[in-house]
Amino acid sequence: MKIIVSGSLGNIGKPLTAKLVNAGHEVIVISSNADRKNEIENLGAKAAIGSVSNSTFLAETLKGADALFAMTPPNLGSQNVIANTTEAGRAFAKAISETNINRVVMLSSIGADLPTGNGPIAGLYNIEKLYNALETSITFLRAGYFYTNFYNDVPMIQGAGIMGGNYPADTKIPLVHPEDIAQAAAEELVKTSSGKNIRYIISDVRTPQDIAKALGTAIEKADLSWVEFTDEQSLQGMTQAGLPEEIAQLYTEMGTGLRSGKIAEDFLKSNLAADGKTKLEDFAKQFASKF
């Protein structure tokens, strides 16, 4: 098959590209960074350098392809994040419609069933709606909260000896490892399917208290605990760390959605299995190796 992979060679794109190439598929990787061309080609894929907000470039890239992994960057600049993300999705939708590509796997998220109250995930809600109007066979791959986001807590752990967020220690959070997303995407891209389908890809469901304990044990800080911040403290902490205010506000809103349970609700009420391979304790070992 000829398969297009967007998302360049990030935490998902790189293992996904390797899996597809090793399975004998012709793979074209979209990247906005021309410096990635050699790295892409060294994996055995071809590079398409351009912007995912450019529907003309996307349509040219998608011509003759059998399948597309559509990953829309979550932050296109520090202003109008939801609108910019949605416009990139609109460009993809236009290119998909024009090229009549048969199979699309879209990287989405838990909470994408909600139009508001989910922070940056609102952009994915909008894109799912755009894709639902297409005639193409599409799987919405709704991923959990990335384990790798916890690397952002390293300065807090080192400086204050705590982890924290604006949601309590007993919040149930569906978690996922990027490599498990790559595996699920590789499976879905080669499926013969019709219509629109939702697949949740979750590696584990744990609480912040569990997370702090597992990571603390792995880095030999057994007393590492989770501290619940107020929304104001969360927002202030992110802006002081250098995050643009709009993005900090969106992530604070995502925290309130986790706190209320709304973001995880659709997955949890479905009683679906956490079928990703990488459990929290497995990630804790990876975390310790980079701490």
TrEMBL record:
InterPro entries listed in its UniProt record: Ergot_Alk_Oxidoreductase (IPR051604), NAD(P)-bd_dom_sf (IPR036291), NmrA-like (IPR008030)
SUPFAM superfamilies xref list: NAD(P)-binding Rossmann-fold domains
Domain of life of the organism encoding this protein: Bacteria
Pfam families, alphabetized: NmrA
NmrA-like domain residues: 2-238
Protein name: NAD-dependent dehydratase
Native source organism of the sequence: Flavobacterium johnsoniae (Cytophaga johnsonae)
